[in-house]
Amino acid sequence: MRRMIQTTRIQKSTRTAFTLVELLLAITISGLLVVSAVSAVRSLTSARESVDRRGQRLCQARQAIECVTSALRNIRRDVQGDDPVLVGRPGDRGEPGDRIDLLVIDQRRCRPEGPESDQQETSFSLATLPGREYPALLCRRDHALDDEPEDGGLATVVAEGIIDLSFEYYDGDQWQREWVEQPAPPRAVRVTVAAVADENHDGAAVGTLEIERRPAGIELGSLLQPCTGGKIHATATTDPPNLAVDFTYDGSPSAPATAGQYAVVATVADPNYAGSAAGTLMVTKGTAGITLGHLLQIYDGQPKAATAATTPAGLNVQLTYNGLHSLPAEPGRYAVEATVEDVNFTGAASGTLTIWKLVDSFEIWLETRNLNPLDVRFAENADEDGDFCTTWDEYIADTDPLDDGQMLVIDSRIENGTLQFEFPVSSNRFYQLHYSTNLFGPRLVRDLGWGGTGYLSTNVSGEWYGTIKVLLKQP
């Protein structure tokens, strides 16, 4: 029996369309991709705009600090009188930042139509303008120099979005927050500007700038000098000229006074200029002057020594007499050699010491008054004090040949019918009155005796003509 076999053909499906579920899924995925792409584009755009805004703010801040520092560099430096050229105050008066007022040199005109000088008052401060959220940096310029340096002039906006402006002032020792009542400007000014960087009010500090002093040339001088007995100072020439300069010698501000080598450092001490120079100061031995004294002495059997005074004073001096250090005592002449012995000075002098033996009463009289009998000023016919009395007249009257107020002057007067003489006397002289009662009559002599102190007055009736005689001894 034939079995019948049934064959079934399976045909392959040829359908090419998405199902509804697949279509919805594809649409969803595509939407998500579009949303992501749009978000990414928006984020990139926002970031780019933020970077641009930050760059603009930083540019504004840089513009602000450049404007301020430019004015500081052109500040007037030749201070005259007590009028300050810079006044800086911190912003503690309700202002959003510090304020600085300057006197600068600038050839730009505030008002082109009017004549103006090249000097102008310039101020920088922060102010919030109408319709603006953040403060702006204002620059006020005024060419009319007056007693109100903080007012007047024209104000312009330098930069917007500046949220902080601060200044610090260096006086050579430390930084200060304000600079008031100072005629000279500070040695340096530190400027700090901060600007708004984004909508979150984050401040972006632009930086700090120090305006240093201008460089000055300095050249040392007088680096080779001898000792003088005082301080030895180096000198300095500056460019520009006449600047104040501080010196140190081996690190000390005190100048040396002794011979040697010293390291010198000169530093410009000026509020507007800076500069220094170094060198070596050579101090050599100085030449001292010597004045010999007591070269004429009276013989009394004792050793005699000359004296030596030095310039500068107080230097040690060695003396020799005819080449010997021992002191002479006998009458005669001795060659004196004087030599300075000092680490800082040299010097020498020579002279002659005379030991004189007195034999004359006139010479002895001079010696008792500490006067040199060999001095021509006290010769017998000399008149050293100019009182018209020679030294011999002074000797006879025992008056001082160096005092023109001492001389033998006789005053006469008639009192109660008698002639009276009055004159100065000395206890070392004997006095006589020679007189007559008639011009042609005989001359009579009256002993008045040894003088005392003060004045002696005669009082003899009938004496009409008379003369006073001074004797060295009683007759």
Quick take:
Helices cover 15% and strands 37% of the residues.
| Proportion of strand residues | 35-45%
Helicity, as a percent range? 10-25%
Number of separate domains? 4
Number of helices: 3
Low-confidence segments: 1-8, 201-207
Number of strands: 31
Description of the molecule:
This protein starts with 19 loop residues before the first helix and ends with a strand. It has helices spanning 20-73, 361-368, 391-397, and strands at 86-89, 99-105, 119-127, 136-142, 154-160, 162-170, 175-176, 188-196, 203-210, 214-215, 217-221, 224-226, 235-239, 245-249, 260-268, 273-274, 276-284, 286-287, 289-293, 296-298, 307-311, 317-321, 332-340, 345-346, 348-356, 411-415, 418-424, 430-436, 444-450, 455-457, 465-471. Mean pLDDT is 79; it is low at 1-8 and 201-207. The strands form ten sheets. It has a five-stranded antiparallel β-sheet with strand order 1-2-3-4-5. A four-stranded antiparallel β-sheet has the order 7-6-8-9, covered by helices on one side. The protein is mostly beta strands. Strand 28 and strand 29 form a beta hairpin. The longest helix is centred in the first third of the chain and has 54 residues, at 20-73. The protein folds into four domains: 56-212, no CATH class; 215-284, Immunoglobulin-like (Sandwich); 288-357, Immunoglobulin-like, CATH 2.60.40; 408-471.
